[in-house]
């Protein structure tokens, strides 16, 4: 934590908590420090820490993803996990920005222009200088939580054709004019596909070669969720064989260290180093977490509680 964030935590929470800031991520150090704690704020807890945290009641995440936590052990210990959601609109904004870059070929044109002057660039063979439009297109959103819904809201100016796929069925009134669709139908009909669902045992590798083979060859894919939801080898195959028109990613594949190098070989790619949640001058996750910790300190109900049965 920066000194500024530590100051915010201290000022807000000191009336309700005794506060200690960790000075190391070493598991043995954390085991000792968290053993007697009632509440913990952070992004990850090693198993050895969870096992010894006999007084821990609440683990407040500094984010949304719980896929790197041992949920089975945390549930066994009776620890409530809370997520943050205030960053969702910023992540959606980032996702739509990557979409615009792909549809209008902005990063592709930029790379070409840096390597050539305008006159010689225009005479290069095999380059399509025409971009695409979003007006009237079908946009599919896989995962309709806070981020998926925010993406829907941001893109309503372009089209009324939205296909929604969600593990949690929501009332029609919450669909903002969209239509529920099965995963296969959504992929076949969509000109743009956003992947915004959580990573769970069911969604890991959910998008494979069959999905890409059934997609439109001009379809644009934006993965604003965990990388592993889309099978990496299937993605490379789809790009090599031009099964899709473009792909953008912000969150990566931790088990594939050279993933960005492999993807950089393709021109119809937009890559970002996990920056969608980082907003200059604002700390949406911190604000959301502080609000929830204050609720706990005041004896009020917590928000954004992880559902162990669903895994997110």
Characterization of the model:
With 312 residues, the chain is an alpha/beta fold. Helices cover 36% and strands 12% of the residues. It has 13 helices and ten strands. The chain has helices spanning 3-13, 27-34, 47-52, 71-76, 88-103, 106-115, 118-122, 146-154, 183-189, 209-214, 232-240, 259-263, 284-297; strands at 39-42, 58-61, 80-82, 139-142, 162-165, 179-180, 192-195, 220-223, 246-249, 269-271. A seven-stranded parallel sheet has the order 6-5-4-7-8-9-10, sandwiched between helices. A three-stranded parallel sheet has the order 1-2-3, covered by helices on one side. Helix 12 (259-263) links the parallel strand 9 and strand 10. It is elongated.
Give short descriptive properties of this protein:
312 residues; alpha/beta; seven-stranded parallel sheet; three-stranded parallel sheet; 13 helices; 10 strands
Instruction: Estimate the strand proportion.
Output: 5-15%
Structural class: alpha/beta
Helix content: 25-40%
Largest sheet strand order = 6-5-4-7-8-9-10
Q: Characterize the largest beta sheet: strand count, sense, and whether it forms a barrel.
A: 7 strands, parallel
Counting H and I runs of at least 4 residues, what is the number of helices? Answer: 13
Number of beta-strand segments:
10
Average pLDDT across residues? 94
The helix-strand sequence is HHEHEHEHHHEHEEHEHEHEHEH
Low-confidence residue ranges: none
Q: Using the alpha-carbon principal axes, give the shape.
A: elongated
Beginning-to-end CA distance, first to last residue: 25 Å
Report the C-alpha radius of gyration, rounded: 22 Å
């Amino acid at each position: 934590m920066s000194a500024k964030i530590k100051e915010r935590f201290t000022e807000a929470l000191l009336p309700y908590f005794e506060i200690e800031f960790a000075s190391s991520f070493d598991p043995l150090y954390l085991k000792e420090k968290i053993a007697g704690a009632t509440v913990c704020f952070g992004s990850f807890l090693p198993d050895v820490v969870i096992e010894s945290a006999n007084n821990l009641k609440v683990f407040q995440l500094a984010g949304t993803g719980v896929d790197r936590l041992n949920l089975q052990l945390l549930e066994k210990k009776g620890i409530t996990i809370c997520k943050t959601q205030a960053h969702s609109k910023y992540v959606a904004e980032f996702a739509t920005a990557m979409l615009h870059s792909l549809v209008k070929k902005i990063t592709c044109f930029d790379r070409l222009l840096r390597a050539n002057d305008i006159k010689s660039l225009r005479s290069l063979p095999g380059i399509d200088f025409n971009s695409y439009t979003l007006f009237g297109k079908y946009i599919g959103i896989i995962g309709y939580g806070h981020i998926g819904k925010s993406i829907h809201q941001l893109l309503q100016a372009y089209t009324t054709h939205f296909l929604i796929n969600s593990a949690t069925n929501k009332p029609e009134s919450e669909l903002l004019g969209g239509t529920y669709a099965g995963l296969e139908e959504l992929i076949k009909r969509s000109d743009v596909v956003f992947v915004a669902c959580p990573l769970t045992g069911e969604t890991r590798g959910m998008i494979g070669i069959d999905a890409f083979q059934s997609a439109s060859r001009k379809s644009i894919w934006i993965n604003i969720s965990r990388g592993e939801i889309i099978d990496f080898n299937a993605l490379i195959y789809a790009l090599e064989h031009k099964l899709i028109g473009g792909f953008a990613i912000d969150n990566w594949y931790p088990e594939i260290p050279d993933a960005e190098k492999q993807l950089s070989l393709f021109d119809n790619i937009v890559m970002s180093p996990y920056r969608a949640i980082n907003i200059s001058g604002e700390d949406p996750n911190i604000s959301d977490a502080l609000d929830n910790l204050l609720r706990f300190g005041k004896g009020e109900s917590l928000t954004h509680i992880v559902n162990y049965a669903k895994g997110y």
